[in-house]
Amino acid sequence: MKTIFIALLVIGQIAYAQDKTTKDTIITEVLENVIVTANRSATLRKEVPVAITKLSQKLINETKPAAIYEILNKTPGVLMVNLGNEQHSMAIRQPMTTNSYYLYLEDGLPIRPMGVFNHNALLEINQFNLQSIEVVKGPVSSLYGPEAVGGVVNFISVHPPVNPEFKIGLQADQWGYKRLQVAGGATVGKFGFHIAGISSEQNHSWMTFSDYNKDNFNARIDYNINSKTRLISNTMVGKYYSDMSGSVNEDAFYKRTYKNTTDFTYRKSDALRTRLTLERDWNENGNSFLTVFHRDNKLGQNPSYGIRWTPGKTTARGEINSNNFKSYGILAQHSQKFNFLNSNLIIGALYDYSPNDYSSYQIDLQANLNADETVNNYQILAERPDLKLADYDAKIKNSAGYLQYSFNIIDQLKLTLGSRYDQMDLSYENHLDNSTGEKKYNRFTNKIGINFNLNKNIGFYSNYAQGFAPPSVTAIFRKKPGTGTTTVPAAFYYNLESAKFENYEIGGWSCLLKNKLYLEYAIYYMEGKNELLNIRQPDNSTDYQSAGETRHKGIEFAVNYKPSEQFAIRIGGTAAQHTFIDFKVSDKPTDALQRLDGFEMPSAPKWVGNSELNYYPKWLPNFRTSIEWQYVSSYYQNQINTVKYDGYNVFNGRIGYQWKNVEFYTNIMNITDKLYAYNVSRGNNATDKSTYTAAAPRTFMFGLQYHFTLNKK
User: How far apart are CA 51 and CA 134, in angstroms?
Assistant: First the structure.
């Protein structure tokens, strides 16, 4: 790590020497990018002391993603794991995980309330309604609160266009996927609007029992009350239903017999999000906004991940659950610039009231085995609503206040200080033990950051930031193993605590070769405490505790080189290490390991990279082509570090041509038809088998899009 750090400093010095010999330079697009997520207000990228990447509308339009992971994985330090049909997990400064360590925003507002995290929340995003995406890596809890630990992903919606425009497109592949997408908008007088809708479906794919359909509609209306005051309305409505294909065993994976072991598992979601924002520019130095918002989300599942089976047994059990919430909230913020030290103050407050109800009950399954005693398929024997796993009503009240102040110590040196206080009040009725009660989770989170811009083309930053994540409400109200019987009263996890994180980071950027080459890097060290432990009991059940400690360290880097107007090269990736420090996994005496102190975390590749070469030939205007390389190195499948998955190298190609108002394009995913898996996992038992989340074979995505704009006279 020291060698890498020294090399990056040398690069910075080379850039500095070059800049001194260049009289006039043009700052690259990257440094001139205006980003909003890092400071909750429009700020130049080079003035924020965090690792942040902005994915532009041009990049999104050229990628034409069928699923969000296709665009997010172009971000250095990000691996969004495709779990099929737009379901996903994430890895940003963490292993590939479904833990509540990421905050997903839509136009600056969380998609979910605190305590009701869902790792699949991004399946509700409308890919045809994206102006840009901003990804902040590392804790941002001092501005955005809990769950902003590994990072924050902010999806920024398309604004109303000045001139009337209309877009319609079709996408389809050879595996039964097709999507219709429509968008349009205009500004007429003081009113502006933009609407976007998609309708996707998958039928009879390469994996059996993996159909899905998704319908999303987004609408934005702007009303300019006067030159300083605006009223903005945003509404999103989405419906989603998917078979849950789950994973396959090793034999089926290598034989490419992609047979789902369940024909009954599913996930369905109905989502509504709406907001109304009043913005006011008091003068050139001060502005405020006030947002009222509402969410209404219903999620029902018969999840494949909920199936519990002991190797060799012909019986198993699963669950059917329902998780629903509504939110009513308000967010207010004021930003004020001062002449004194060129300083800026941001102050804000949030209140979110989210009633939440959850129920889950057992289903009895038959496990039909193969000759090697792996599961060929499961069948439902009986639904058991009499065997409740969880059943509660909760009222979640989240309140927060935050403050951030930045100022220039000298012209080239900016200091940023931030602090936020969050409190989650949880009142509940637990219908399994007929109890009522209240829980509180609160915490101050702070950050301090420094930017040092040596000149127009070189900058450095460092920061210290805290993050935290309260326990998921669903974890609190799970019955403890061995309780809730005729002889033992039900017991629950009321004593779970919030996980806490501390992150230390340095980074910087440089422009070389007359701004044709742009380099960016970040080096981080993060520790987590009170993380949730799943401890295996003597009867093979699982118990929870808040006592785990982990360490995460690595380097993220990006290289963008544009030698001419025809070529552009992007290289990005991360080298990281994720380690258990104090981690107990078992109370079972026969398990070889009860503690994992010093072990590598599973599903934690040490290297992840995504690079791309783009070609825009002068001899054929409006034509584009690119080839993308996705690399994931080997990683341990299980916690006890006994077996690894080799990782993968995958190549994707994209070709597009625009003729007048019509664009034709083809995306070729997995060009070489490589056999690989997005994720491979395995239990700690000697008898456990590896399960593979198989990636799609070579896929040809064909698209046609019509775009009409009426220029006003």
Answer: 11
Determine the 3-state secondary structure of 57 from DSSP. Answer: helix
Report the amino acid identity of residue 49: P
Three-state secondary structure string covering 76-139: CCEEEEEEECCEEEEEECCCCECCCCEEEEECCEECCCCCCCCCCHHHHCCHHHEEEEEEEECC
- DSSP per-residue codes, 296-360: EEEEEEE-GGG-B--TT-SEEEEEEEEEEEEEEEEEEEEEEEETGGGEEEEEEEEEEEEEEEEEE
**Contact (CB, 8 A) for 291 and 297:** no
Please report the sign of the dihedral spanned by the C-alpha atoms of residue 355, residue 97, residue 480, residue 690. positive
What is the C-alpha separation between 95 and 79, in angstroms, rounded? 9
Mean pLDDT on 128-149: 94
What is the number of residues in the chain?
713
Rounded CA separation 72/584 (Å): 33
pTM of the model: 0.93
Give the Cβ contact number of residue 448 at 10 Å: 15
Candidates 302, 296, 272, 441; CA nearest to 357 is 296
Bridge partner list, 526: 503, 552
pLDDT for residue 114 is more than 60: yes
Task: Determine the Cα angle at 109 with ends 108 and 114, to 5°.
Answer: 135
- As a CATH number, domain 2-709 is 2.40.170.20
Mean pLDDT of the chain: 91
CA distance from start to end of the chain: 59
Percentage of the chain exceeding pLDDT 90: 78
Q: How many helices (H) and strands (E) does the chain have?
A: 7, 36
Task: Parse the chain into domains and list their residue ranges.
Answer: 2-709
What's the half-sphere exposure (Cβ side, CA atoms, 13 Å) at 285?
9
Q: How far is CA 8 from CA 50, 137, 279, 450, 454, in A?
A: 17, 19, 42, 18, 15
Asked if 116 and 443 touch (Cβ cutoff 8 Å), the reply is: no
